[in-house]
Amino acid sequence: MSNLAPSAALAPALPVSASSGAAIELVGVNKWYGDFHVLRDIDLTVNRGERIVICGPSGSGKSTMIRCINRLEEHQQGSIVVDGIELTNDLKRIDEIRREVGMCFQHFNLFPHLTILENLTLAPIWVRKMPKKEADELAMHFLAKVKIPEQAHKYPGQLSGGQQQRVAIARALCMKPKIMLFDEPTSALDPEMVKEVLETMVSLAEEGMTMLCVTHEMGFARQVANRVIFMDAGQIIEMNEPEAFFSNPQHERTRLFLSQILGH
Amino acid sequence: MNDFTTWDVFRNLLAAVPWTIYLSLIAFAGGAAVSLLLLCLRFAFPRAAGTPVRLYVQLFQGTPLLMQLFLVYFGLALMGVQTTPLFAASLCLSVYSSAYLTETWYGCVLAVPKGQWEASSSLGLKHWQQMLLIVLPQALRLSVPPTVGLMVQIVKNTSLASIVGFVELTRASQIIANATFEPFLAYGAVAFIYFVICFSISLCGRHLEKRIRI
Ligand SMILES: Nc1ncnc2c1ncn2[C@@H]1O[C@H](COP(=O)(O)OP(=O)(O)O)[C@@H](O)[C@H]1O
Ligand SMILES: [Mg+2]
């Protein structure tokens, strides 16, 4: 599936770093769009340093679930606790959580009117109140990390899709988040650019970042995930370590989905 | 017949050009000021201000500018309020432009992709920061072509001020046509002058558009 080299630094799954309480805890979460029940009794605990891959058919509620975690969507029932803070309508808490949770989108959503450097420094300057010079240095550090420091003064429209997505990752990292959410970060990319983005994500995983990643890149899942979740019709159908998940799926729907996604 | 040359016709028409331009500028500036105010209200209090603003826009878009001009100029006179043609024309053109500008600019803000809001939310920016730093700069770029189009409309609409006796280009051309008995020359010349003004505005707009392309 993935274009990643099979032999990577990470063995099947990395050890979870020492935990001090869960990073994310969803208990009995339900959500409706009007009459449409999009999330049904979601229970999920993500430990610190843990990497979870979420897969499932289109429309199964994967995006909605991870978007509830940083309140891009509101849930109606159950509780979501992120980094020890429970999500309520309290705007202060929402802001506090958003400062700790970075997100990458399928379509990058870079700010087209700002240079790459300005894209990266915007939030540190306005949200973290960092002096501009310090923010610039921080931004250059992360641009170097995603391997495109030479693009700092270009505009997003001048970059390839893969470069834009790496900028988006760097932009999120500039806020020094404790948790990263990815919503199909490679599915809008041309095949030849998938690899560079996945490599960036693998190196993030190697550093122990807590990651929740919606993706159908099963090679990536095998390589870095501690657990793989299969969602269908708003429910978590199955959750297991990657080895067991892929070799021995328990549910018929999971088997069907995997056979479609793996193409045999 | 008399001895008006073509140049005399043009010279007299050109003398009226500044009035058309003043009136256009007043209408645009007044309209822009009112619509910025209405937009602020609409975005700050979407529930309370949404309906009144929409009604205002519908009302002034849905009635002919000519009727608004008659109502203000002759209506105010009937109520014993003295107005001048310039005042009546400025007021009506401003209000009329404000309706279109409000609608257009509101659309430009809404046209900024939802993903821009989401990305800036996910970074922890506050609503006013998202508006000021992310959405408005992009909406401004989007607004250039339709705004230029509206400016051209405003210039052409100033011709209606001739109805209440204000001497701008159109009124001047009527006077000249009557004096020279050469309506074709007078109206042809005035149409050409309008075209030059409007075409210059479009050219400037296109230049501006190129410079601020995203
Ligand atoms: N804003 C919305 N209003 C109504 N329905 C929505 C909205 N967003 C998503 N949906 C519906 O919710 C379901 C789950 O969507 P989503 O979470 O995006 O699925 P996935 O990411 O798994 O493809 C889909 O059927 C979708 O049509
Ligand atoms: Mg999705």
TrEMBL record, chain A:
**Ranges of residues in domain ABC transporter:** 24-258
Instruction: Name the keywords, alphabetized.
Output: ATP-binding, Hydrolase, Nucleotide-binding, Transport
Q: Name one GO molecular function term.
A: ATP binding
Query: CDD domains in the record, alphabetically?
Result: ABC_HisP_GlnQ
Concerning InterPro entries, the annotation shows: AAA+_ATPase, ABC_ATPase_HisP-typ, ABC_transporter-like_ATP-bd, ABC_transporter-like_CS, MetN_ABC_transporter-like, P-loop_NTPase
Q: What is its EC number?
A: 3.6.3.-
Using the UniProt record, name the top-level EC class of this enzyme in a single word: hydrolase
Q: Which domain of life is it from?
A: Bacteria
Q: Member of which family? A: Belongs to the ABC transporter superfamily.
PANTHER family attached here? Answer: AMINO ACID IMPORT ATP-BINDING PROTEIN, PHOSPHONATES IMPORT ATP-BINDING PROTEIN PHNC
Q: What is this protein called?
A: General L-amino acid transport system ATP-binding protein
This protein's species is Ancylobacter vacuolatus
TrEMBL record, chain B:
Concerning CDD domains, the annotation shows: TM_PBP2
PROSITE patterns according to UniProt:
ABC_TM1
Keyword set, alphabetical order: Cell membrane, Membrane, Transmembrane, Transmembrane helix, Transport
> InterPro entries this protein is in?
AA_ABC_transptr_permease_3TM (IPR010065), ArtM/GltK/GlnP/TcyL/YhdX-like (IPR043429), MetI-like (IPR000515), MetI-like_sf (IPR035906)
Q: How does it sit in the membrane?
A: Multi-pass membrane protein
Superkingdom, taxonomy of origin:
Bacteria
Q: Pfam families of this UniProt entry? A: BPD_transp_1 (PF00528)
Q: Where is the ABC transmembrane type-1 domain?
A: 17-205
List where in the cell it is found. Answer: Cell inner membrane; Cell membrane
What are the transmembrane regions? 20-45, 65-96, 184-204
Q: NCBIfam families attached here?
A: HEQRo_perm_3TM
Question: So what family is this one in?
Answer: Belongs to the binding-protein-dependent transport system permease family. HisMQ subfamily.
| Entry protein name | Polar amino acid transport system permease protein
From what organism does this protein derive?
Answer: Ancylobacter vacuolatus
